[in-house]
Design a protein that fits this description.
By secondary structure, the chain is of the alpha+beta class. It folds into two domains: 4-80, Four Helix Bundle (Hemerythrin (Met), subunit A); 105-324, Phosphatase 2c, domain 1 (4-Layer Sandwich). Helices cover 41% and strands 21% of the residues. The chain has nine helices and eleven strands. The protein has helices at 4-27, 31-48, 64-69, 82-102, 151-169, 175-189, 263-266, 278-287, 293-308, and strands at residues 107-110, 113-120, 128-134, 140-147, 196-203, 208-214, 219-222, 227-230, 248-251, 257-261, 317-324. The strands form two sheets. Strands 1-2-11-10-7-8 form a six-stranded antiparallel beta sheet. It has a five-stranded antiparallel beta sheet with strand order 3-4-5-6-9, with helices on one face. Helix 1 packs antiparallel against helix 2 (31-48).
Length: 326
């Protein structure tokens, strides 16, 4: 039985085949269109023969993110031609520069709000999503998420989310509607295997926050006398086109902080294959709840470094600390 990714890629190839055949009828014979059609036909033949997605040189699997980005890929990265290798390196470098330009500044101050973020890709590009922005009514928005998959395909989806949220926030929708609209657009414009867990929040000039946690890890609310988790109340965005989401409202006291993170932190492992875990993160954050955002992030990252003890970073890592100074 074909796996779900092969089914999706087959559907995508069939649609591409039909469009090329229609274009040949409407536009007349074209050498370029004929060549593209031959490549699509060959990919469908590989699917039918059970060899799709295998490198034609070494017969190892082609990288999944590259197949999702281009279903016609026939070679793994190790067996690209020198020209293709150079083109891929240029594309990756450009993608990394684009991602870097889209990131908010590491330190952000707005009214009584203080924010710091840390963003670290496991490879050249990242599938984590991180953004901060303000509206014209004295509110600021914070978003942190994780797109399904890795590599170039995930990075492309991250930039798509960035553009969608920036456009939707400018409309001034209530937070629930903002997330629902974003989820619907994401669902309609991507493959069904693509989704994103994320936390989107809105902070007012009085220290009140609205938070929607769409399938993401718990937000840690660091208070003077306790720590509280703001859990997910819905599925990740993009799973269904008609998803509904709910928000939680909270009034922060001066000195309270919110800590957001991706699984590159909570699921990091050391050389003994032990997981860092949310419990360890919560304990550390609780002990240092009074620190300003940048110092709190530094403490978290230093503790992760001690825990990992040189173990390889296996996933993209993003952390955001938000403090209401009052």
């Amino acid at each position: 039985m074909a796996n779900p990714m092969e089914v999706l890629l087959r559907d995508q190839l069939v649609v591409r085949q039909q469009k090329l055949e229609t274009a040949l009828v409407k536009l007349g014979d074209s050498a370029n269109l004929r060549q593209l059609l031959r490549e699509v036909d060959a990919a469908l033949d590989r699917l039918n023969n059970g060899v799709y997605g295998l490198c034609e040189v070494c017969h190892d699997p082609v990288e999944t993110d590259r197949l999702l980005a281009d279903p016609l890929e026939r070679f793994c990265i190790d067996h690209l031609s020198p020209h293709e290798q150079q083109a891929l390196e240029r594309d990756l470098a450009m993608a990394a520069r684009v991602q870097a330009e889209l990131l908010p500044k590491p330190d952000f101050v707005f009214g009584g709000w203080q924010v710091a973020r840390h963003y670290e890709a496991a490879g050249v590009v990242s599938g984590d999503y991180c953004d901060l922005m303000t509206d014209g009514d004295g509110n600021f928005y914070f978003i942190l998420g994780d797109v399904s998959g890795k590599g170039v395909a995930a990075a492309m989806l991250m930039t798509q989310l960035h553009a969608m949220f920036r456009s939707l926030i400018s409309i001034g929708l209530p937070l629930e509607q903002l997330i629902e609209r974003a989820s619907s657009l994401f669902c309609e414009s991507t493959l069904s295997t693509h989704y994103a867990t994320l936390v989107c929040g809105k902070g007012s000039r009085a220290g009140e926050v609205e938070i929607c946690n769409a399938g993401h890890l718990p937000v840690l609310w660091l208070r003077r006398d306790k720590i509280e988790s703001i859990e997910a109340t819905g599925l990740p965005i993009g799973v269904f086109c008609e998803e509904k989401f709910s928000c939680r409202k909270a009034q922060l006291a001066p000195g309270d902080s919110l800590l957001l993170y991706t699984d590159g932190l909570s699921e990091a492992r050391n050389s003994s294959d032990e997981e860092y875990g949310i419990e360890r993160l919560a304990k550390l954050a609780s002990e240092r709840h009074s620190l300003p955002p940048q110092s709190l992030l530094s403490a978290c990252l230093e503790d992760l470094k001690r825990f990992s003890a040189g173990a390889r970073q296996g996933d993209d890592l993003t952390v955001m600390s938000i403090r209401w100074a009052g």
